[in-house]
Amino acid sequence: LSGLDPAQPYFQGTPNEVRLDKSDADFVDIIHTDSAPTIPNLGFGIRPAIGHIDFYPNGGEQMPGCGKNPVSQIVDLDGIWEGTRDFVACNHLRSYKYYSDSIIYPDGFLGYPCASYDLFQSGNCFPCPEGGCPNMGHYADKFKDKIKNDFMKLYLNTGEARDFPLWRYKVTVTLSGKKKVKGYVNVALYGSGGNTKQYQITKGTLKPDNTYTAYIDAEINVGEVTKVKFLWNNNWINPTLPKLGAATITVEAGQNG
């Protein structure tokens, strides 16, 4: 039984028999997309974990792409009706959009078990544990026999518009060069599954021999990494023409470490 952002008003805090609960089926998976408090945030979705596994995409409160200005949201790619509904209840309705995307991407929407969204964002719950991560949505039941805890809270990030799934990577760059400069470092990944856009790994003071790490949520599953593209820029013309390179770049995929 899959709960797509089950309702908060009149249901949160009620006895199990009143609301959706994991006792309602052999396997209950929940997607929370609008779980901010109803007052004052108008959150329509229930906040506590109530299933065997509970997914909190983007933290479960505010979905990317839902903060668009009202005009662009109402005149939506999917039509005025869809856009108007999104304007009124965009976060709430993301749950079924993620679900329908999950049918097309059996390897997408990996939920990382974590104590909080902040810890997930900072990379504390990376990569997936030994038993793997469940997939949010249609294929969540593949995880049915691997549940160990009473409640399992899972976190992930999604895109702003379809296609929604993102794949998480840890990218570590050690710089080489003669002296420190100011600027930023970008890396793009190339692999058997396709290429990503450039992602910023760090910005500010760049010191040779220093190591910089970032967690990126890529728009494709790169598959086996075949090469990486390293770019750096110091944002302004420097007459000393500083040079900077990458001594090493390490890429770790979230799904299998």
From TrEMBL:
InterPro entries per the UniProt record, alphabetical: AB_hydrolase_fold, Lipase, PLAT/LH2_dom, PLAT/LH2_dom_sf, TAG_lipase
GO cellular component, as recorded: extracellular space; neuron projection; zymogen granule membrane
Chain ranges of the PLAT domain: 167-257
Topology versus the membrane: Peripheral membrane protein
Coiled coil regions in record: none
Keyword check for Lipid metabolism: yes
Cellular location(s): Cell projection, Neuron projection; Secreted; Zymogen granule membrane
Pathway membership, UniProt: Glycolipid metabolism; Glycerolipid metabolism; triacylglycerol degradation
GO MF annotation list: galactolipase activity; lipoprotein lipase activity
A GO BP entry: lipid catabolic process
UniProt keywords, alphabetically: Cell projection, Cytoplasmic vesicle, Disulfide bond, Hydrolase, Lipid degradation, Lipid metabolism, Secreted
UniProt cross-references to Gene3D superfamilies, sorted A to Z: alpha/beta hydrolase (3.40.50.1820), PLAT/LH2 domain (2.60.60.20)
Catalytically driven reaction(s): a 1,2-diacyl-3-O-(beta-D-galactosyl)-sn-glycerol + 2 H2O = 3-beta-D-galactosyl-sn-glycerol + 2 a fatty acid + 2 H(+); (9Z-octadecenoyl)-glycerol + H2O = glycerol + (9Z)-octadecenoate + H(+); 1-beta-D-galactosyl-2,3-didodecanoyl-sn-glycerol + H2O = 1-beta-D-galactosyl-dodecanoyl-sn-glycerol + dodecanoate + H(+); 1,2-dioctanoyl-3-O-beta-D-galactosyl-sn-glycerol + H2O = octanoyl-3-(beta-D-galactosyl)-sn-glycerol + octanoate + H(+)
One Pfam family this sequence matches: PLAT
EC number(s) given by UniProt: 3.1.1.26
Enzyme class: hydrolase
SUPFAM superfamilies: alpha/beta-Hydrolases (SSF53474), Lipase/lipooxygenase domain (PLAT/LH2 domain) (SSF49723)
Similarity comment: family membership: Belongs to the AB hydrolase superfamily. Lipase family.
Protein name: Pancreatic lipase-related protein 2
Protein species of origin: Sylvietta virens (Green crombec)
